[in-house]
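## retry 2 of 3
previous attempt timed out at serialization; input unchanged, resubmitting
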Amino acid sequence: MPAAPLPQNEIENQLRELPGWTLEGDRITRTYRLPSHFAAAGLTVHVAQIQDELNHHSDLTLGYDTVALSVNSHDAGGKVTEKDLTLAARVAAVAPGHGAR
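## retry succeeded, writing output
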C-alpha cells in the first residue's frame, strides 16, 4: 500500500520538532557538519543502518566533514510522507552522538 503524501502545513508543523531539517520543494533535507571526516563517515554508516531498519532510504551524501540527506517517498509520487519524517527523527536522534551540529 503506497504511503499517503502529507499536506504542507503538517510537514512544516512536524519539522518544527526537527531543528535544521527543511522542506525544499517535495523533499525534506538536512546537512550535518561533523568534527572530522571519520565522524562523518561514522554517521553515514549509522544512517544507512537506520534506513535499512525502516526500509526507507534517502539520498545520502558524505563530504569531508558533512553528511547531507534529502528524502521523499517514491511510492507517494515523490512527496513527503510520515515515513520521511520518521527517518528524519531517527537520524536527528543519533546525529549528536557522532558530534554532528
